[in-house]
Specification:
Rossmann fold; 2 domains; alpha/beta; Sirohydrochlorin cobaltochelatase; about 15% strand; Anaerobic_Co-chelatase
């Protein structure tokens, strides 16, 4: 007689070397998922080999890659895997993660994938609302400038679409750009300039407030977004809070796990 199938969830993140933000973002997402699905063991994998290596060397902390986590799951007798990324978009990291996981497809009964944060129109609208709610106490003369990561992948278009959606849903003072693609800071400078804000709040549009938030967004270098905007004469306040800290964002990812399980049923 065959043993009953054992289902487990693999939560895949890019990772961060900043412990403070990890605790309130990646750890919090994993906890919410584990709490929502108590019958399924929850495993962790990160996709940044550089960060995995840094944590091992610096802190003696071992974090699995996707392939290592799946090897562990096989060893533990897991038969059915739900892979839930905490990636913001369906970009390069997510494509690579899927390829790594699917290399194990013949060794499990099933492997299904939950969607990254921004996948459907409903996701996009829910995230716009979550950000607007988070900064709802801003007055109308203050602009919120958000820094996304950005990618060469065609999925990058979601950032410009989301920036448009903020304006279209009445949030004329919220601007979303990227550190590595389009819309870049120069575009945001033009857009915010035409809005004429008295103050600017800067925040990361990334799951964690890690390296990009600490350095590219709020760092001391002259080309950080904080210093570029300050040099334009704005009074700028950085808020280093990753999207993973927003309860609504975590709820969306929990919902994506459930949707993945539904497609398997």
């Amino acid at each position: 007689m065959n043993a009953a199938p054992k289902k487990a969830i693999l939560v895949v993140s890019f990772g961060t070397s900043y412990e403070n933000t990890r605790k309130v973002t990646i750890d919090a997402i994993e906890k919410d998922i584990a709490d929502a699905f108590p019958a399924c063991p929850t495993y962790r994998a990160w996709t940044s080999k550089m960060i995995i290596s840094k944590l091992k060397k610096r802190d003696g902390i071992i974090i699995h890659t996707v392939k290592e986590a799946l090897e562990q799951m096989l060893h533990d007798g897991i038969t059915d895997v739900v892979v839930q990324p905490t990636h913001v978009i369906n970009g390069i990291e997510n494509d690579q993660m899927k390829a790594d996981a699917l290399s194990f497809k013949d060794q499990f009964h099933s492997i299904v994938f939950g969607n990254p944060l921004l996948t459907t129109e409903e996701d996009n609208q829910a995230v716009v609302q979550a950000v607007a709610d988070e900064f709802s106490d801003m007055d109308s003369e203050t602009a919120l400038v958000l820094m996304g990561h950005g990618t060469e992948h065609f999925a990058n278009s979601v950032y410009a679409a989301l920036d448009y959606r903020f304006k279209d849903t009445g949030h004329k003072n919220i601007f979303l750009g990227t550190v590595e693609a389009y819309p870049a800071l120069d575009s945001l400078l033009r857009a915010t300039g035409s809005f004429h804000p008295k103050k600017i709040v800067l925040a990361p549009f990334m799951i964690v407030a890690g390296d990009h938030a600490q350095n590219d967004l709020a760092g001391e270098e002259p080309d950080s977004w904080l210093n570029r905007l300050s040099s334009e004469g704005y009074e700028v306040t950085p808020v280093l809070k990753g999207l993973g800290e927003y309860p609504e964002v975590r709820r969306i990812l929990v919902d994506h796990v459930q949707q993945a399980m539904n497609q398997e049923a």
